[in-house]
Amino acid sequence: METHPARQAAARGPMGVVRFLALVLLGALVGGVAAVLAAGFVNAVLWLNEVLLISPRSRMMFDRPDLLLIATVAVPALGGLTVGLLHRAIAERRAHTPADVIAAVQTRRGRLPARAGSLSALSALVSLGAGASVGQYGPLVHLGASLGSLGARLLRLGRSEDNITIACGVAAAIATAFNAPLAGIVFAHEVVLRHYALRAFAPIAAAAIVGYVIATSVLERGALFHVADTAVPQPWEFALFLAIGGLGALVAGAYMRAILTVGRLAARLPLAPSLRPAAAGAVLGVTALWVPDILGIGQETLRFATIAGAYGSGELVVVLVLKIAATALCLGMGFSGGVFSPALVIGTLFGALCGSLVGELGALSADTFVYYAVCGMVAVTAPVIGAPLTSLLIVFELTGSYALTTAALASVTLASPIAAQLFGRSLFDIQLQARGLDLSAGRGRAVLQGMPVGEHLSRDGVTLAPGVAVENAVAQLGRAGHGEAYLVDSAGRYRGCVTLADLEAARLAGDRATVGEVATTERPVLTPDSSLWDAMASLEGVTGEALPVVDAADGETFLGVVFEARIARAYLAHSDELRREEHGTG
Amino acid sequence: MAPARRHRGGLGALLLGLSLTLNPGLAPAADSEESAEALTVLSWGGAYERAQREAWFDPFTAETGIPIEAARYDGGLAGLRDAVASGEVPWDVIDMTRSDAMAACAEGLLEPLSPNLLAPAPDGTPPERDFLPDSFGRCAITHTLFATVVAYRRDAFPGQRPTAIGDLFDTQRFPGPRALQRTPAVNLEWGLLAYRVPREELYGLLSTRRGLALALDSLERLDTIRWWEGGEQPVEWLLEGEVVMASGYNGRFFDAMVHRDAPIEILWDGQVQEHETWVIPRGARHPEAARDFIRFTTTTERLAELARRIPYGPARRSATRQVTTHPETGQDMRLHLPTHPLNAENAIVKDEAWYARTQERISDYFRDWLAAHADE
Question: Mean pLDDT of all residues in chain B?
Answer without folding.
Answer: 87
